[in-house]
Write a structure and sequence with these properties.
The protein contains eleven helices and 20 strands. Helix 2 runs parallel beside helix 7. With 413 residues, it is of the alpha+beta class. The chain folds into two domains: 182 residues, FAD/NAD(P)-binding domain (3-Layer(bba) Sandwich), CATH 3.50.50; 154 residues, D-Amino Acid Oxidase, Chain A, domain 2 (2-Layer Sandwich). The structure holds pyrrole-2-carboxylate. Pyrrole-2-carboxylate binds next to loops.
């Protein structure tokens, strides 16, 4: 928008508008309160306002917008899951992502790349074949390919993998994509704000008031807010929020570390994941290699990142791409991954009337942002779980009705 740029750049009288409004005060009442201004919470607010006309909504964030998992992931989007429930759910997200830049009127740098999950063993090949068959059955573009296709699509990859664990084949998922994760949160935040939703940063929920089994409001560091509907979308902080109402979830919180390299000229068109080496890498539109590895193997509530992690990751990266030896790591970080026992999310209603949960995002939350927003907005507005999320209900753990998705998590656990 060159005219806008000129106007804001040349004149003090036209300060550039903020992405979203920051009202000074909390209102005493909202129709719904969303805890957590990450992608999921903001997307739910947007669809509540857009699709259900519920605009008296406050999104409360104890830190800043996108401070949690939204800003700490490696921005991979795919739907090549193992279970029918997972494939349908993530495929709807991929479909929504495809048109999201136009929908939110913001360039999200959505870029279709093709996603390879490399197999270095017969056992992994078998799981990849299984996933490919489930995917194809549900209309998702995935196939098991041999080394020649990998070589054609990613000629820089050393298929011998240093001679230790040669690549035998891969699950190839052409629709696999990446996007700018911060922009997704900003886009949803701006679009929700334009529809009347209020986003309050530095606003911590310290308690949830329940009367007669029904949510009555939330206590915050800025006072009490009355509401009959609360959505918790706080990923790694879910156990703390659920403790406020005495509801237990089977979540374990582990750090998941990641890093980016210095910017390089574009050379890597595809997303490469190695299930055996616990490594994934893609190249962002800024030229940085965006890389991650397995979860840290212990429960910990910390976003510190370690030298051990970068050393381990660099070793494996060089087995696949030996020519990267001189490339420098620019920055590294960690996010909190809230893992469920079956590696599927927890979504829907809770035993407390009016309290809804969007959690269990482990290492797969970013790609689900749009579909979570849509389905949780539907669930809040109608007080009925959206059909796509029924399999992910919290009560499945009591009902022995798990959705085992471990083979498609893409990261070592
Ligand atoms: O599920 O694609 C994935 C993923 C990549 C990194 C962490 N999870």
């Amino acid at each position: 928008m060159p005219f806008g740029l000129l106007r804001f750049g040349m004149s003090r009288r036209y300060p550039e508008p903020r992405m979203f409004r920051c009202p000074d005060r909390l209102k005493p009442h909202y129709d719904a309160v969303i805890i957590g201004a990450g992608g999921h919470g903001l997307a739910a607010a947007y669809y509540l306002a857009r699709d259900h006309g519920i605009r008296e909504v406050a999104v409360l964030e104890k830190s800043y917008l996108g401070a949690g998992g939204t800003g700490r992931n490696t921005a991979i989007i795919r739907s090549n899951y193992l279970t029918a429930e997972g494939v349908r759910f993530y495929d709807e997200s991929l479909r929504l992502f495809h048109d999201l830049s136009a929908d939110l009127d913001l360039n999200l740098f959505y870029s279709r790349r093709g996603h390879f999950t490399l197999a270095h063993s017969d056992a992994t090949l078998r799981t990849m074949r299984w996933r490919a068959e489930v995917n194809k059955h549900l209309g998702v573009d995935s196939e098991l390919v041999g080394p020649e296709v990998i070589r054609r699509e990613c000629p820089q990859l050393d298929l011998s993998c240093g001679g230790h664990t040669p690549v035998l084949g891969a699950l190839y998922h052409p629709p696999g994509a990446i996007a700018r994760h911060d922009a997704v949160a900003w886009g949803y935040g701006r679009a929700a704000s334009q529809r009347g939703v209020e986003i309050h940063q530095q606003t911590e929920v310290t308690g949830i008031r329940v009367q007669g089994g029904q949510v009555a409001g939330v206590e915050t560091n800025r006072g009490f807010v009355e509401t009959g509907k609360v959505l918790s979308a706080v990923a790694g902080y879910t156990p703390a929020v659920m403790e406020m109402v005495g509801v237990r979830t089977p979540l374990e919180v582990h750090p998941l570390q990641a890093c980016v390299s210095e910017p390089l000229k574009p050379w890597l068109d595809t997303i490469i994941v190695s299930a055996n080496l616990h490594l994934y890498v893609s190249q962002s539109s800024r030229g940085e290699l965006v890389m991650g590895a397995a979860l840290d193997p212990y429960e910990l509530h910390s976003t510190r990142s370690t030298l051990d992690f970068v050393e381990g990751l660099a070793g494996h990266l060089l087995e696949l791409f030996p020519f990267l030896g001189q490339v420098r790591v620019l920055r590294q970080w960690a996010g909190l991954a809230d893992m469920t026992p079956d590696f599927s999310p927890i979504m829907g209603k809770t035993p407390v009337e009016g309290l809804y949960l969007d959690a269990g995002w482990g290492t797969w939350g970013f790609k689900a942002t749009p579909v979570c927003g849509k389905t949780m907005a539907h669930t809040l507005a109608t007080d009925r779980p959206h059909p796509l999320i029924v399999p992910f209900r919290l009560s499945r753990f009591d009902e022995f009705d798990l959705v085992g998705e471990k083979g498609a998590a893409s990261v070592g656990h």
